[in-house]
Amino acid sequence: MIKRRRMVRAFTGEPLAPGIADGLLGAANRAPSAGFSQGYSFLVMEGAEQTAPLWELFYEDTGHAGPREAEERAEIAALSRAPLVIVTLASKDMYLDRYARPDKGWQDREESHWPVPYWYIDTGFTALLILLAVVDEGLGAVFFGIPQR
User: Fold this and answer.
1) CATH number of 2-136
2) Cα torsion for 9, 15, 20, 21, to the nearest 10°?
3) What is the DSSP letter of 63?
4) For residue range 7-42, what is the model confidence (pLDDT) as tens digits?
5) Where are the domains of the chain?
6) Which of 51, 55, 65, 59 lies closest to 21 in space, CA to CA?
């Protein structure tokens, strides 16, 4: 499975079979989680009606004249045909709350107890499991960030 994993940057727009999104989210919930905090959630958009507002935001952001404008718009057009978008979201507060409980002992909720921000690490694991589950389904996927302007 891992050797078959590739980033796909253009999609056909064909709808997914029923239950695919639920299966991908089920795979994501198998990710490790510090203290079983599970400080992640998912924004799921399926089909053109749900995903269109996201892609419109990207188009608006590339509306400035520049050397890469046409290239950026072409990239967004290719991505915008994806029938499903899953946005992984991390919640630091869920981790701080979990470790402030008596069985963990960090009642002060101080972020300095954490050598690394596990809320991001664990959420990254969920994204990776989604990508691998997509391969199991014989589909294509891409992991991308929202550029800061």
Assistant:
1) 3.40.109.10
2) 70
3) -
4) 777 788 889 999 999 999 999 999 989 888 899 999
5) 2-136
6) 51
